[in-house]
């Protein structure tokens, strides 16, 4: 065989002396395998054998869209990297030491207010100690005479006085920090059912240690006892949550200084001129930053911080939130996202009103009115702009709930349409609009010129 013939082949055969002879059985098996593989293919083989819908059709079986989710995350990451670069090129590095522009007097006033807060709980403890005395005397009397305890006129009178003192105590607790910031520079009751789900029964719970535990416990609803965690203190779990709090707070501060502040400052002129298109553009730009800050706040507070407290106090019930991000309506969201506040309003406002014959819709309206007033207080007082924006935003939830509730019934719980409506109305429009309005009011009040 010529050298050209060898060079045109796909392989160069090794010298005869180097080749190992193949066995007859091996050669037959190889030939049989090649023959069977050739026979298994037919160019007339049917490829369409079943009736099936396209994967993206409604009639198709459920399919995973993880790939699209990964693509969306990549697009979001790329968009945010572009925004980071654009922000840096436009403003440079804006972060400074936290509290640089806070006057020393504010630190003093804050310290006074913070130190004074536990006095509210201490006074409540003293009030309950006063209210329990006639009840203990009644228990002692009936025990000696082998009788059933009754609510004597003296007990009822003391309870009425205790209720008034509690109202005064709560009012002072709310007004005191409010007045400091502005600088101007429940009736005790005895359950008739002797069976109790608690491990400690009234009045044995009226102790300073009990009220101190309630002060630090991650709940707003007082109970004589709480379910305790079965496992012991986990140092690794505790340190992980503390690390999450530090990272989240750092990220929030960075987002506020580097992104939110410049966007808000650049929005003042558009607000002055009522340039609607520019306002909408500023609002959409702010929505991304405010949403990230809000999500970080949620995770840092409701997950990390409350789990830190729970781990230290061995607090067992840690359902501080449920899967609110899948809410198909605003009503579902308000039930799931902040469980401690939801339980407080349900226990101390909604159910007592409904129990007195108040229609549920009126009771719901009352809950939202109180919540709206507290939101206005929390936002309006620190910004020195009690303008009713937060109050109006909260009250606007009621018609939105009325509109979104039938949608959830129609499309089912957690429907995509209802979930999108929730995200758009609450996070992409409502929150940034509220932030922009309060910032603009602050600028007007303090005559701050945009940079």
From TrEMBL:
Parts of the chain that traverse the membrane: 67-85, 107-127, 162-180, 200-217, 238-256, 283-302, 349-374, 386-404, 416-440
Comp. bias regions, Polar residues: 1-15
Localisation per UniProt entry: Endoplasmic reticulum membrane
An example Gene Ontology molecular-function term: diacylglycerol O-acyltransferase activity
An example Gene Ontology biological process: triglyceride biosynthetic process
One annotated Gene Ontology cellular component of this protein: endoplasmic reticulum membrane
Primary location class: endoplasmic reticulum
Coiled-coil portions: none
Segments of this protein annotated with the region Disordered: 1-44
InterPro entries documented for this protein: MBOAT_fam, Oat_ACAT_DAG_ARE
Membrane topology: Multi-pass membrane protein
Top-level taxon of origin: Eukaryota
Active-site residues from the entry: 375
Family per similarity comment: Belongs to the membrane-bound acyltransferase family. Sterol o-acyltransferase subfamily.
PANTHER family xrefs: DIACYLGLYCEROL O-ACYLTRANSFERASE 1, STEROL O-ACYLTRANSFERASE
Summary of the function given for this chain in its UniProt record: Sterol O-acyltransferase that catalyzes the formation of stery esters.
Protein name, as recorded: O-acyltransferase
Organism: Paraglomus occultum
